[in-house]
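R.M. (postdoc): so does anyone remember the format we settled on? I'll just put the structure tokens first.
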């Protein structure tokens, strides 16, 4: 059995499930010390950056590697400290850092401080882990070929507690899960296409989960009478919604992976996707309905096709897709790539 690695320092800006999942996966083969930001915007960030500097000064000497999710302002100090002390730094490219949609003001590089932070981070980091080939391609196109050259794809993951045997006849809801607060995110997540498709299918019940702030106000403005809007919910509440759902839609104009689709699939929901982003990679060859254009008529037709799928067809999709992205595979890839980097 290989010897345990020296401690890994993790710097976490987002309290996201996928970030915490990586923390747990890395703990299976190395000790982990975590620094968590308390703020993501405002003057308080300066205090958090000072706390981060102290954390790095205290802990970097006993560490083997620094591991950061997303290439933004919070990743610059860790990457710089790694270079100055001879340690290694891995930055996970999660999607928004590789994206560039200026018309929606989406992407780290749409902000001048973000552009500078991204430029510094990808040059100082020793290795970049892209969560999908789609994200790697975005990194090459929107950031630089040099950044893409030091990147590898380590797919994101989801391991269901159990796989629900589909029973389509007991379900009727058409669902969209979109964690969105700003108005622009409505369009990034394709909620507008979902809403317009709902207006073409008045006999069906539609639901959007995860909206708040400006996003919720914008969604209320465009919602058809058959659309129910719900704010962010706990995962336990979301599971109960999945169990009432027949079809889950994700018409994102930018999406690096699509974990919510895998969650819903495990609970017996038929995914409907856009053929342009990360979910197209995740569901390639599975036979799920997909749209090629962000057009309401196409979306409505894809939803109708999903409603016609049998339990046996959905079960086949579950068996094709879910094992490919099991977290045991990400854990092995993380260990392999980290050990390879530390051996150089």
């Amino acid at each position: 059995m290989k010897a345990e690695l020296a401690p890994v320092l993790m710097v976490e800006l987002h309290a996201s499930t996928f970030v915490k999942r990586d923390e747990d996966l890395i703990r299976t083969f190395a000790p982990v010390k975590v620094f968590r930001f308390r703020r993501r915007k405002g003057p308080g960030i300066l205090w958090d950056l000072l706390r981060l500097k102290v954390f790095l000064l205290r802990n970097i000497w006993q560490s083997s590697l620094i591991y950061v999710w997303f290439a933004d302002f919070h990743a610059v100090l860790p990457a710089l400290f790694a270079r100055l002390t001879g340690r290694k730094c891995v930055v996970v490219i999660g999607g928004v850092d590789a994206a560039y949609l200026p018309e929606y003001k989406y992407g780290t590089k749409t902000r001048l401080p973000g552009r500078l932070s991204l430029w510094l981070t990808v040059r100082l980091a020793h290795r970049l882990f892209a969560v999908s080939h789609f994200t790697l391609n975005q990194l090459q196109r929107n950031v630089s070929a040099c950044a893409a050259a030091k990147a590898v794809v380590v797919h994101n993951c989801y391991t269901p507690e159990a796989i629900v045997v589909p029973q389509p006849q007991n379900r009727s809801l058409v669902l969209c899960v979109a964690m969105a607060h700003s108005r622009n995110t409505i369009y990034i997540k394709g909620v507008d296409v979902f809403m317009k498709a709902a207006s073409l299918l008045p006999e069906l019940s539609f639901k959007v989960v995860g909206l708040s702030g400006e996003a919720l106000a914008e969604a209320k403005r465009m919602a058809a009478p058959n659309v129910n809007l719900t704010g962010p919910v706990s995962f336990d509440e979301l599971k109960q919604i999945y169990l009432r759902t027949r079809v889950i839609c994700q018409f994102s104009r930018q999406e690096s992976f699509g974990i919510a689709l895998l969650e819903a699939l495990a609970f017996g929901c038929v995914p409907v996707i856009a053929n342009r982003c990360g979910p197209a990679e995740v569901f390639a060859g599975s036979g799920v309905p997909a749209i090629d254009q962000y057009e309401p008529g196409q979306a409505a037709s894809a939803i109708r096709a999903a409603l016609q799928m049998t339990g046996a067809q959905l079960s086949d999709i579950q068996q094709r897709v879910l094992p490919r992205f099991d977290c045991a595979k990400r854990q092995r890839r993380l260990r392999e790539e980290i050990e390879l980097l530390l051996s150089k």
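R.M.: ...and that's the designed sequence above, right after the tokens. Also worth knowing: The radius of gyration is 21 Å. The mean pLDDT is 93.
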